[in-house]
């Protein structure tokens, strides 16, 4: 088989022509995984390569419950969970639960269904980030997913590794809608991470003036 690492580099860089050639010569690469257990489709999604991801899906790769959640294949993902409910709190090889993945990749119908089936809204990832689905939704930029998780009971001031909150992420990315939703549900505008940075610090560092003004209006202060 061709080198899996090289193939995955083609996937991550968005080189569709090379990906096509690799798979034409070595079809088994479609389901080959790296040392973290990640397949090409998953890497295409992580590295924001929608054209590659769409092409790989068209080839019908083998998808487990986690990659089904990444793809937003609601009925298939739920069928797997209904057969084995323990999957709700299982973690993928790189540390994510189904709810984390549905939240990060922006699938509200799937996230709602997972919560209806008993998924823990504040469950932690098993990787070094030690974050919750709310952090995953914030990292994915999905204000609607953040709102959904908060409505379903997610704690707005929960911290991940390093002491970061979802509001830190919203401030850093300049996502006003997300920040407004978090604050409306009780997010602390002055909460500081382990390095003592607040959401206001993050907004200033990233030049997010709209967020700076929004946070200052709410009483956010520099140290």
């Amino acid at each position: 088989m061709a080198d899996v690492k090289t193939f995955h580099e083609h996937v991550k860089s968005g080189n569709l022509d090379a990906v096509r050639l690799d798979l034409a010569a070595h079809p088994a690469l479609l389901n080959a995984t790296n040392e973290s257990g990640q397949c090409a489709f998953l890497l295409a999604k992580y590295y924001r390569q929608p054209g590659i991801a769409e092409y790989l899906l068209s080839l019908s790769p083998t998808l487990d419950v986690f990659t089904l959640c990444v793809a937003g294949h609601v009925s298939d993902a739920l069928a797997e969970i209904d057969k084995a409910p323990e999957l709700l709190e299982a973690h993928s090889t790189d540390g994510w639960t189904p709810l984390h993945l549905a939240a990060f990749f922006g699938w509200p119908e799937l996230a709602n269904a997972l919560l209806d089936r008993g998924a823990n809204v504040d469950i932690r990832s098993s990787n070094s980030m030690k974050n919750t689905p709310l952090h995953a939704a914030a990292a994915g930029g999905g204000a609607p997913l953040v709102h959904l998780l908060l409505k379903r009971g997610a704690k707005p001031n929960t911290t991940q590794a390093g002491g970061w909150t979802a509001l830190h992420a919203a401030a850093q990315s300049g996502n006003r809608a997300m920040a407004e939703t978090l604050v409306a549900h009780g997010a602390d505008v002055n909460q500081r991470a382990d390095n003592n940075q607040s959401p206001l610090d993050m907004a200033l560092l990233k030049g997010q003036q709209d967020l700076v003004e929004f946070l200052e209006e709410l009483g956010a202060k520099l140290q």
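The two ends are 56 Å apart (CA to CA). DSSP finds 14 helices and no strands in the chain.
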